[in-house]
């Protein structure tokens, strides 16, 4: 039969034992947390790579990406060529009040214009201020870490091997032409 008050004594023993241990709580604003290398914080925009293809906005399940653009005529690259038109980005904004951080927009971007930034301190006092325009998204791009290094034991991509082979052939052809030109001069 349990002794009356033994549960209270056990509870107090646990309390005293925990009070004597050192605290493991990190005091957040003073001590920054140790983040994993590829932490998902906020989405950064590398504006130079954006072609305004709208894939990110179309695939977003929350419809939280807003893109505006206009067409601009570009002069021909060579004389006698024809003028071309291209899309120019006017507005790129993400409403982080709606975003569920699924990363679909980053995955579908064919031109690597969107990246995960480990930045996580972007709280606002008003929910309407959570729509960040391209200037703020561009700022976060500089906090994006370098991609992990390729495995040294991995096979070289076929595209690189083909490009290297073509460059070697062109260099060999140039050496042969120079040698033939040197013999012709002598």
Describe this structure in words.
The model has no long low-confidence stretch (mean pLDDT 89). This protein is elongated. The chain starts with 5 loop residues before the first helix and ends with a helix. With 186 residues, the protein is α+β, with helices and mostly antiparallel strands. 33% of the residues lie in helices and 17% in strands. It has a three-stranded antiparallel sheet.
Return the average pLDDT rounded to an integer: 89
Helix-strand sequence: HEHEEHEEHH
Assembly category: single chain
Secondary structure tally: strands: 5
Helical percentage:
25-40%
The radius of gyration is 29 Å
List low-pLDDT spans.
none
* Biggest sheet: strand arrangement: 2-3-5
Strand content: 15-25%
* Envelope shape: elongated
**Biggest sheet features:** 3 strands, antiparallel
Summed up, the helix count is 5
Structural class: alpha+beta
Distance between the termini: 115 Å
Record the SSE blueprint.
Layout (H helix, E strand, L loop, with lengths): L5 H15 L21 E4 L9 H5 L5 E10 L9 E12 L8 H5 L5 E4 L13 E2 L1 H8 L16 H28 L1
Antiparallel strand pairs: 1-4, 2-3, 3-5
Labels describing this entry:
single chain; 186 residues; alpha+beta; 3-stranded antiparallel sheet; 5 helices
Put the structure in a nutshell.
This protein has 186 residues and is an alpha+beta fold. The chain has helices spanning 6-20, 55-59, 104-108, 134-141, 158-185; strands spanning 42-45, 65-74, 84-95, 114-117, 131-132. The mean pLDDT is 89.
